[in-house]
Amino acid sequence: MRYPRWLLNVGAGFSYTNYYTTGANPLQGVTIGSTINGMATTLVRVQGNIQWQCFQANGGNWLGVCEPLKLTVQAQTWAELMEDIGLTLDAVMKDLFTSNELPKFLMDKGWTLIGAFPTHQDVRFDVPFIPAMMGANGTPRELYQ
Q1: pLDDT per residue over 85-119, tens digit each?
Q2: Contact predicate 29/93, CB 8 Å
Q3: Per-domain boundaries in the chain
Q4: pLDDT tens digits for range 35-47
Q5: H or E segment and range at residue 96
């Protein structure tokens, strides 16, 4: 498995760990069974869109910056960047899930799960995102997938 090359840019005392407290879970979601690498995994779909500002750096690598989540992802190609953004969002959601901080995080962002809240640790999160291609003057051009 190829892991994303991602950085968590932590700003102004913000940290994903121990930032959100656990609480009542008003969320409803759907879990869909699937198999990845021969192991049963539950796919958890998140309803919520987030914009990533994407641009090609001077050295040729692609960068994706998500200001709302304070995340930066770097890849050699556009296709790898899109894959790595998905893997990064999955990793953040898994971290929040395992630390019991996911319900509060989703509520704070206005996101919901489609279906029931997962009850076991073997999950994969599907979080939709919108890449906005940044031009030379910083003007975004939205790309729809």
Answers
A1: 999 999 999 999 999 999 999 999 999 999 888 88
A2: no
A3: 6-142
A4: 445 557 889 999 9
A5: helix 78-98
